[in-house]
Amino acid sequence: MDDRLITRARNTRARFQQVFSNPPQVVAYGPGRVDLLGSHTDYNEGFVLPVAIDLEVMAAGRKRKDRRIRIWSHNFGKLSAFILDNIESDTKAKWSNYARGVIKCMLDAGYELGGADVLLDGAVPIGSGLSSSAAVEMAVAMLLQSLFDLEIADTELALVGQKAENQFVGINTGIMDQFASRLGKSGHAVFLDCRSLEFELVPMPMEHVRIVVADTMKRRGLVDSEYNLRRGQCEQAVEALKPYAREARALRDITPEQFEENRNILPKALRKRAEHVIYENERVLKARELLRIGDLDGFGNLMNASHDSSRDLYEVSCIELEAMVGAARRVPGVLGSRMAGAGFGGCTVSLVEKDMVEEFQRLVSAEYYEKTGVKPIFYVCTAADGASVLEVRS
Ligand code: ADP
Ligand code: MG
After folding, report:
1. Domain span at residue 192?
2. What's the CA-to-centroid distance between 372 and ligand 2, angstroms?
3. Are 196 and 311 in the same domain?
4. Tens digit of pLDDT for each residue in 224-279?
5. How far is the CA of 117 from the centre of ligand 1 (A)?
6. Helices 154-163 & 132-147 angle (0-180, nearest 10)
7. How many structural domains are present in the chain?
8. pLDDT per residue over 76-90, tens digit each?
9. For residue 119, what is the domain's CATH number?
10. Does residue 242 lie within any of the structural domains?
11. Are residues 219 and 345 part of one domain?
């Protein structure tokens, strides 16, 4: 385990002791994640390629003799408490609903839990698109798994987190975030087939590069309505192409050849959306091949192509994302740069030579500020391990 995690665990332990006047029995964590490739492919049942990052939510816990759960968030500076047999969402401490949902879903799945005191101590920026929510879910699930001696398969644990977010919190997200947070591996990216949940840990040599996330500080206002619009357009494109690809259930099933032969039957908007998704899936497959042979330059080119297609064909970019990606690509030592997540704001992700990371931040910050009047925030990351248990004491 690296020194940074040891230090973080020590701090979280001390915070737990302060709040609950007893030491924790277990310290676990779940990392945030960033998507390196695979833009809007998830709900088209295609491929994604995220990495777990070295920003994580720590969860410390201690069993109680009763059936009460008390959760303290260091970041929110608040407590939320409830009884295991009656878990409802907390309208005052909304932040606690992610943990509540995980606990409810674990109980519903038949896992036996008892009462516990839990402390959350997060380093994943909240609401920036690095999935602090999945980090909380995986941290809590790992903590409880260890505290109550449960054996839960990795994929199962990710699904519990997704279910908590979908059904308890009420946010309709795919499986990528929880999957990356649970199954990520240091020095690897996670290739995931969103239909079958088959995955592969693909080596991502990190000795000489860093993953730099740049927050445009533009909040994603349009995202809900535009997102639903795009989803609908993808479904319509599949319907229109079905006569030419009979087995197709989703855009994932349409080959580039089938698309090219029949592209003219699609109205312009549907044609652009379908073209983006079909070739984005191809890029993720190609990226997996390139990573297998350690070709990070080629990988960076795919990141650039992904962004350009998201902008021109899927039309989910915005002035701020363009300013940030444009500035990033002008810095020497940048292998590739693209929007992260769904677009319309949020963060970009760039692959940057390690020695150029400081220069990158200086130059991109200056240019972005000049164009938008806003100072961006950077997170310099590496491909890190997925959720783990760090310390167990009886
Ligand atoms: P993102 O996942 O992109 O960071 P979300 O809105 O999906 O943004 O999830 C953020 C929510 O996750 C927060 O509003 C809060 O409810 C929960 N959360 C994240 N970090 C913490 C933390 N350290 N303590 C408690 N809750 C947290
Ligand atoms: Mg989230």
Report:
1. 3-203+384-392
2. 26
3. no
4. 788 899 999 999 999 999 999 989 999 999 999 999 999 999 999 999 999 999 99
5. 19
6. 120
7. 2
8. 999 999 999 999 999
9. 3.30.230.10
10. no
11. yes
Residue 188 confidence (pLDDT): 98
- Protein residue with its CA nearest to atom 22 in ligand 1: 122
Overall average pLDDT of the 162-170 stretch: 95
- Could you give the angle at which helices 296-312 and 319-329 cross, rounded to 10 degrees? 150
In a domain, 75, yes or no: yes
Q: How far is the CA of 21 from the centre of ligand 2 (A)?
A: 31
Q: Amino acid identity, residue 321?
A: L
Among the bound ligands, name the one nearest to the CA of residue 98.
1
For the CA of 122, the closest atom of ligand 1 is 23
Tell me which of 95, 131, 132 to substitute to probe ligand 1's pocket, judged by most ligand atoms within 8 Å of the beta carbon.
Answer: 132
Q: Is residue 281 part of a domain?
A: yes
Q: Please give the Cα distance from 260 to 274 (Å, whole number).
A: 11
Query: How far is ligand 2, taken at its centre, from the CA of residue 135, in Å?
Result: 9
- Within 6 A (CB) of ligand 1 lie 57, 73, 75-76, 94-95, 98, 120, 122, 126-133, 136
State the Cα–Cα distance between residues 349 and 160, nearest whole angstrom: 28
Q: Are residues 362 and 388 in the same domain?
A: no
All residues at 6 or more sequence positions from 235 whose CB lies less than 8 Å from its CB, including other chains: none
What's the pTM?
0.95
- Note whether 26 and 147 are within 8 A (CB): yes
Nearest residue (CA) to ligand 1, atom 13? 95
Mean pLDDT of the chain: 96
| Coil vs helix vs strand at 53 | strand
pLDDT confidence band for 221 (50 / 70 / 90): low
214 and 176 belong to one structural domain: no
Active site residues: 177
**Domain assignment present for 258:** no
Clarify whether residues 282 and 335 are in a common domain: yes
- Which residue type sits at 73? S
Q: Are residues 190 and 339 in the same domain?
A: no
Whether 21 and 85 share a structural domain: yes
Convert the pLDDT of each residue in 342-389 to its tens digit: 999 999 999 999 999 999 999 999 999 999 999 999 999 999 999 999
H or E, element range at 357: helix 357-372
Residue identifier of the C-alpha nearest atom 21 of ligand 1 = 122
Are 192 and 213 within one domain?
A: no
Q: What is the CATH number for 324? A: 3.30.70.890
